[in-house]
Amino acid sequence: MQSRTPAGRTGRPRSAAADAAILEATRQALVELGWSKLTLGDVATRAGVAKTTLYRRWAGKNELVVDAVAELFDELELPDRGSLANDIEGVVLQFAAILDRPEARSGLMAAVAESTRDDALRERIRASIVDRQKRLVLEGRARAQCRGELPSEPDPEEAARTVDLIFDMVAGAVVHRTLMSGKPADEEWVRDFTRVLLLGLAAQSTETP
Question: I need a surface site. Which of 1, 12, 135, 186 has the fewest CB within 10 A?
């Protein structure tokens, strides 16, 4: 598990086991207590570490909660299932399964709600969750281009816009389906969503000069 806290701190080396225990305790506390009642002291007790250990790693509750949620999404992997459609279906099903976990739902919804009035928290979410998971889009697009399923995009700015658009469509649709609508992102829905997404990508490709 990689640390996402600011580099450059001095002192004793960090313990990966302590980090893992703290992040797991944070997720448990979110489910049981919710954002408003969660305290760093409670997390330290649950994790079996001193408060000073926790405070050396995270400046406050916002950073801690985002990192605890981000660790869940780091589990996502893009499967190689032979085609772009199948690859998308595989990763979307993984994403939906993570969002079905109480700790992911509680943590993500609470962090997003708090970020509406906290610019620093919103930036932390963007850097630790959104930007990190765009790796999946980059990997999937590169693989599809090698297969000849998508055209190359020599313009870096245009390519970056495409990555942003694909990520926004996938993440937005799955989050809305599972967390807002409360409906399952099951295999049938994922197949239908993937078909619509690919139709859009195909239309965009034909419009590219």
Answer: 12
